[in-house]
Design a protein that fits this description.
alpha+beta; 5 helices; globular
Length: 133
Amino acid sequence: MPHTLQTTRLFDDGLIAETALSPLPNRDPSLIVSEPERALLELASDVGKRRANGQSLEEAMNIAASLRNLRPKVLDTLLSHCTRVKVVKLVRDFGEANGLPWGKDLQRHVDRLGRGRRWSSSRKDGPRFTLKA
């Protein structure tokens, strides 16, 4: 299975490091993985990356559409500490576009990071990607 390792700081120092991380059931407890809410933010972070295996917006949207049982309180905690405008806007857009219960009332997280600010990215080999304010 192809994979990459990257480090990206998504959260401020106020978030407890272990938030939404846990070991897989019946596995080595020292190996922790992201719970679905945190994984969604990590997925959003990878959209539009300039490397060849960056997550496409369409793939991310399809994955987000399948996440019907996210815990709103956990997602709210993560978004409250998220420092990346792109991530917060994408999560908001994923939830709104799919009409999912966890996607309600996420604009306040976007407003916290900079009301009215757009996020935009373009690549030589791909289209311009812009997220609304």
